[in-house]
Amino acid sequence: MIEAVGLDADDTLWENEQFFRLTEAGLAELLADHGDPDQISRCLHEVERRNLSRYGFGIKGFTLSMVQTAIELTGGRVPGQVIGRILELGHEMLAHPVHLIEGVPEALDALAGRRLILITKGDLLDQERKLAASGLAERFDAVEIVADKTPGTYARVLKRHAVDPGRFLMAGNSVKSDILPVLELGGRAALIPHDLTWQVEHDDDPDHPGFRRLDSIRELPGLVERFGTGR
Amino acid sequence: MIEAVGLDADDTLWENEQFFRLTEAGLAELLADHGDPDQISRCLHEVERRNLSRYGFGIKGFTLSMVQTAIELTGGRVPGQVIGRILELGHEMLAHPVHLIEGVPEALDALAGRRLILITKGDLLDQERKLAASGLAERFDAVEIVADKTPGTYARVLKRHAVDPGRFLMAGNSVKSDILPVLELGGRAALIPHDLTWQVEHDDDPDHPGFRRLDSIRELPGLVERFGTGR
């Protein structure tokens, strides 16, 4: 019996990665004299990886990594105006509209009998802004904005809400963040793939009885039912 | 009877503002050709104020505001190397050691019979890092890292932990963030002033029966006792 369902937010409930990709394209345009878009993206991803333990996830850290990329790629010769434009790219991201993914409201309606916990990482203020703009806040019994999604993170969240991992299912688009740590705790997990998923979130599908891969969030309520009856 | 005590972290449990001031002095040195330290600080504070609703609190937003200040003060002529140094100032802040304020461990010992809730704002990852480095994590029954400290924030935190505001006391160094919103909810609040407090956190002491101003966190356990007996 699944008593509580955890839902990831970015690229599970609403579009997120597309705004990062658009901004990356904007950065490549700004730095076009210093490399082709592929080189610039590779440099940016490398800088992001180096900064991950320092900045964590979210737009503010991404903007700082874009600034650092511009400096590294140009050997420090990037004009101040270009840096100013990069800051503006960050401001635009922080104001981007929230686009719900198809089928989300209907799936949440169908799940309304369970305890629903939104579990997302990123910048606190930005995630709160998006949740408010999504119109979905009232659907959730709890909202947990976390620095990272490790087994320890999920254990703390489940303990806080007095949920037994064996009665918990997590759904999201990242094998690394939404699936593996929950399976490790003894919970179940549903991958809802998104066309765009940040490369650091990728991992192979696990071979585990508590794991399912869905085509869409529309299939989630049915999966929760089936797990409930042991089928 | 006070059942639960909320404690602010930055500049209540450990030093924080001093690292911002040191970094500000470092920025003034980097931009010495473009203004005296006072002008540079004024410009930075103005940029920070403009960015507050966008970035929230914390070092990543502060670093982005320093970069923006350098661009605005130089009319975009700031060299890329200087921006690179500003990013490094941010990295140094994110790695700064945690210095406990005098009397904190003893005060927490004396409060150990109550439920202790750490309530702090700032970047998630950075606050978690500092809490882990402080060695104080085990003293708290709960940790709440929040985007802002409004009456609504405290109401949510108290509801989540099933604490009646009338049985709650909050202690911290900011009248604006730690005192006024809690008094508004019907709780009690103790101001523990710190020599360095960010100007946006300042406000007048309230004239309210639930408010006390202390000289040091050493006085907090006694105050909690006295409130408990109605004296």
TrEMBL record, chains A, B:
SUPFAM superfamilies assigned to the protein according to its UniProt record, in alphabetical order: HAD-like
Gene Ontology terms, MF aspect: hydrolase activity
Keywords: Hydrolase
InterPro entries: HAD-like_sf, HAD_sf, PGP-like_dom2, S-2-haloacid_dehalogenase
Pfam families per the UniProt record, alphabetical: Hydrolase
Protein name: HAD family hydrolase
